[in-house]
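Worked example 4.2. Below are the chains of a multi-component assembly; read each line carefully before continuing.
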Amino acid sequence: MVLIGAIGLFLLVQAIPSLALDNANFLFSREWSTGDVTNMRYGILDLFLVTVVSAAFALLIAMPVALGIALFLTQYAPRRLARPFAYVIDLLAAVPSIIFGLWGLFVLGPVLTPLGEWLISSLGFIPLFAKGNVSIALGGTIFTAGIVLAVMILPIITAVSREVFDRTPGPHIEGAIALGATKWEVVRTTVLPFGKAGYVSASMLGLGRALGETIALTIILSATGSSFGWSLFDGGATFASKIALAAPEFNDPKSAGAYIAAGLVLFVLTFVVNAAARTIVAGHKEYE
Amino acid sequence: MAKRIDVKDLNLFYGKFHAVQQVSLSVPPRNVTAFIGPSGCGKSTVLRSLNRMHEVAPGARVEGTVQLDGEDIYASTVDPVQVRRTIGMVFQRPNPFPTMSIRDNVVAGLKLAGVKNKKQLDEVAERSLRGANLWNEVKDRMDRPGGGLSGGQQQRLCIARAIAVQPDVLLMDEPCSALDPISTLAIEDLITELKKEYTIVIVTHNMQQAARVSDQTAFFNLLGVGQPGQLIEVDDTEKIFSNPTQKATEDYISGRFG
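Applying the procedure described above to all two chains together yields the following C-alpha cells:
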C-alpha cells in the first residue's frame, strides 16, 4: 500500500510542473507534441482511446476463448489430456512480450491483412471496421495489436478460471447429476454460477495486463499523424507504447514530465479497473 | 408413480477394486427399505447403482441387472440421464444450489426437464415444499438463497427438490447424519408420509432409525479388509431386529460387532 502510494505521489509531483506548461487541454485534446519547448501541447485523449479500445478488443476475444478452454479442461477433457494441454497454455504466459511483438508484426500482421481487408469492404459502414488511418498492408493496426494482446492475456484468464472451476464443490455437481442433468446442464447449474466471480476477476486481471502492455504494442502499432477515428484498423499509440518510444526525450524534465503525467493516467486507469473487479467479486460473494 | 425395484446378481467395481459382490434383492412399491451395515460394506455404493450414480466415479463399473418395474435401467438403450430423472436422490450432506433461490432450487429438476411456465413452476414449488413440510417456514422468503436455511431445512429443501419431479423412487443416502435430533425426527416423519406415494430406499448408520422408519431391512457386511461387501440378509424390519437368521446380523444389531 505504502509503495503504491509512494509511486502515485512520485508521478503526481513530477507531472504537475509540466501540466502547468501544457498549452492544450490535457484530458480532452488529441494533440501531442513535445518538440517545441516554447509551445508544449499534450492532450491524452487519443492515447486513452487507443489504450482502452485495444485492451477491450483483446478482452472481448480472450474472455470467451479462455472460458471455453477452462471448461473443456476441467469438465470435459480426460485427465491424461487435460494436464499437458493446461501446461501448454501456461507456457504461453512465459513467452517474453518482445517475442509476441515480433510475432505479431511479422507473422500475424500479414496473415490478418486479407481478413482485415474483407472486414473493411463488407462491414466498413460500421465505424469500428472503417478504413483506418494507417496502411493495412503493414498490419500495424489496433486489430492486430488486440489479437496479440488477447493471446498474451489468455493464459492468466484460463489459469485462474480453471482453478476456480475445479473447486466447484462435489456435492453440488452430484446434486445436479442426480436431478438428471446432462454434462452441459451440470456446468450451467453448478460450475458456472460457482465460478462466475472468479472468472470475472480473472478477466479483469487480464484487462489490467492488456492496458499496461508496452513492448509488444510499441513494436506492432504503426505511428500515425492523424487522430484516432474509432476504427480497429487505425494505428496510433497507447499510453505505455507512447512513453516507451519517447525514452530519448527523458533528459528534458519538461518533456519527461508530460510523459509522466500520461503514465499517471494509465496508473489511475488500471487502478480503477482493479477496483471495479473487486467490487464485482464482492457483490457476488454476498449471495453465497 | 411408485415402482418396484428388482436387483439381480449385482457386482460393483471401482477400477480393479471389487466393491460389492452378488447382491440380489427386491424393493416393493410404497415401501421403505433400509440398508444397514458397517462403514465400507458397500451399502451406499449399491444405493448409488440404483439410479446410475455409481458410474459417475472414474473407473466405476457395474455387472448384473437393476430392474424398475421389470425394465432394466442398465440396458444399452437406456439413457442414464433419463434414469436419474425418474429416480430421485437425497445426499448425506444437504446440497442446495448456493446461487439459486429457494424457489429455483425446488424447481431446478423441472427446469432441466424443460418446463418454463412460471405458474406451473410456482405451483410445483409450493406443492413440493408442502410435501417436504417446509412450506410454512419458507413461504415468505422464496426468493432468498437456499444456502441461508438451517441444516435441517436445507435437507428438507433437497427432499422437496427431489420430489418436485415426481420420481418413481426416492433414494436417501444417510439423509440425517449431518442433522441434529430434532431435524432428524422431522425428516423421519416426512419419510413415513412420503412412503404413501413413493418407493423409498434409505441408507443409515443409525439402527434405531432403520427400525423406526423402514418396512424392510437389508444388512450388508464386509468379510475382511480389501474383500468385497456382501448382502448378508434382507427381510421384514421386525424380523431382522427381533429374530435374524444370520449370526452376523444378530451380532451387528446387538452391538457385539465393530
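Take a moment to check your reading of the output against the notes. The radius of gyration of chain A is 22 Å. Chain A touches chain B through 21 residues (CB under 8 Å).
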